[in-house]
Design a protein that fits this description.
CATH class: Alpha Beta
CATH superfamily: Alpha/Beta hydrolase fold, catalytic domain
Structural class: alpha/beta
Order of helices and strands: HEHEHEHE
Distance between the termini: 59 Å
Number of strands: 4
Low-confidence stretches: 1-25
Strand content: 5-15%
Radius of gyration: 18 Å
Shape: globular
Strand order of the largest sheet: 2-1-3-4
Helix content: 40-55%
Length: 144
């Protein structure tokens, strides 16, 4: 009985803190608002760096009026793909905390693999409105 009361009190305090802070948590599983497009997060490929997708980001902004962000990945995307998926997860959480109704993720080349890892390891499939990969080597490459 005492444990149940403690759980209720902790839940009430947490709910009050979230409401008072004005932060918006990521949507519950499977609930991104499909009718309200939010920002587009672009994930560059191996060695591409942030500048590699600047033109695409500009065209998306121009065509849709939506916010775009090209993620900055350590080593211009040459690092650990799982760590890069965590960077993407952080960017998605920031977007929702800033009031985004949804997010779309576009991964180019190895950035598409990062997006896939985010979906499979970080629950991204329940957080993104859309995930698009462009030229992603999902089965690896003979040149690596």
């Amino acid at each position: 009985m005492l444990t149940s009361v403690a759980v209720v009190v902790v839940a009430a305090v947490a709910a009050t803190a979230i409401a008072a802070s004005g932060t918006k948590a990521a949507p519950e599983a499977g609930t991104p608002d499909q009718n309200k497009p939010g920002p587009v997060l672009l994930v560059p490929g191996y060695g591409g760096g942030q500048g590699a997708l600047d033109e695409l980001a500009a065209r998306i902004r121009q065509a849709t009026g939506r916010g775009t962000e090209v993620l900055t990945l350590a080593g211009d995307g040459t690092g650990d793909l799982v760590e890069q998926a965590a960077v993407l997860a952080d960017a998605v959480e920031r977007a929702y905390a800033q009031g985004a109704p949804s997010v779309d993720v576009v991964g180019y080349s190895a950035g598409g693999v990062v997006a896939r890892l985010w979906v499979s390891r970080e629950g991204g499939g329940h957080q993104a409105r859309r995930v698009v990969t462009l030229g992603a080597p999902m089965h690896g490459t003979g040149l690596a």
